């Protein structure tokens, strides 16, 4: 095996795109799981692939990572053709989620050491790298506990650490926070941002608009194997609609008067439900919520409840595709074919 550390982000010519995929296609039986997707990821950015279950996100990543054959189109990673030079591609890309068959009885440190050895690092170097990664991912304390005692968040961090052993310049994260609690999710987001600060490029998939919003510089929205939009998170949200300030006025407060306050402050017409004292205010800029609340207080109007609702993935989908994110006919990740298992084994 070539020395993987020979390929490093700083060695690569600046200005190259990290991923350039054109017209990617993957067909499973009569399902076109990926149906002509273009993805152009620049070096040093976080690029998000956003879509519901079954949209084709994982399949796209797996083709780019050489874990699945590409049925149509072409892809280059840092200028290297994915089909022509799969060995080189594997040195350039770190993929999470591929170490599913780790030994539960081994400790985190042993697992990392083992992966490092498998990737061709010498014993002493493997130990150093494992130690560094455990520290970096806040796993030192748990380092010598068996994996069977690890929480979901710790496993995710260890998985990410494993994909960084060879310090690949491009990292694929397939739904890195699905199923994590909010605090662990936030920690994972911080970790991902740090990777970019250190010079990595990230291609991640997510089902959550807020995750794409938090992390991604640019987002491709995928629906039934096709890209239906690509833009910055802000631009996507603007396309879809504004956040909404949802208020319920205190008993006896005057909704008409409240509406006047909103119109004066924001120049927007709120939606009123006078019977229940509810008022929904479109917020082009969420910052203005405070202005509305202060304005209402100054007008002597009481508020019994308040919340700000952001556009959801469902709304993004409805706006972009005319159908919801949930009415997807496809099956989910469970149905792996023998073909794919063999690919995994081959890698
Ligand atoms: N190995 C496979 N064999 C058959 N169909 C598959 C296989 N992998 C994925 N699919 C199908 O391809 C579509 C896209 O799946 P996937 O890429 O996993 O979507 P996502 O990651 O966006 O949830 C789904 O309809 C899924 O059922
Ligand atoms: Mg998936």
From TrEMBL:
What Pfam families has UniProt attached to this entry? ABC_tran (PF00005)
Q: Which residues form a coiled coil?
A: none
Keyword check for Cell inner membrane, yes or no: no
Instruction: Write the record's keywords in alphabetical order, separated by commas.
Output: Antibiotic resistance, ATP-binding, Cell membrane, Membrane, Nucleotide-binding, Translocase, Transport
Give the Basic and acidic residues compositional bias ranges: 338-347
A single GO cellular-component term from the record reads: plasma membrane
**Domain ABC transporter intervals:** 19-249
Q: Which InterPro entries match?
A: AAA+_ATPase, ABC_transporter-like_ATP-bd, ABC_transporter-like_CS, ABC_transporter_ATP-binding, DrrA, P-loop_NTPase
**Compartments where located:** Cell membrane
Membrane topology field: Peripheral membrane protein
Q: Which GO terms describe its molecular function?
A: ATP binding; ATP hydrolysis activity
- Extract the SMART domains matched here: AAA
**Residues of the signal peptide:** none
Single GO biological process annotation from the record? response to antibiotic
Region Disordered, as annotated, extends over 321-347
User: Ranges of Acidic residues compositional bias?
Assistant: 327-337
Q: Which family does it belong to?
A: Belongs to the ABC transporter superfamily. Drug exporter-1 (DrugE1) (TC 3.A.1.105) family.
The record's listing under NCBIfam families reads: drrA (TIGR01188)
- Recorded protein name is Daunorubicin resistance protein DrrA family ABC transporter ATP-binding protein
Which lineage?
Bacteria, Bacillati, Actinomycetota, Actinomycetes, Streptosporangiales
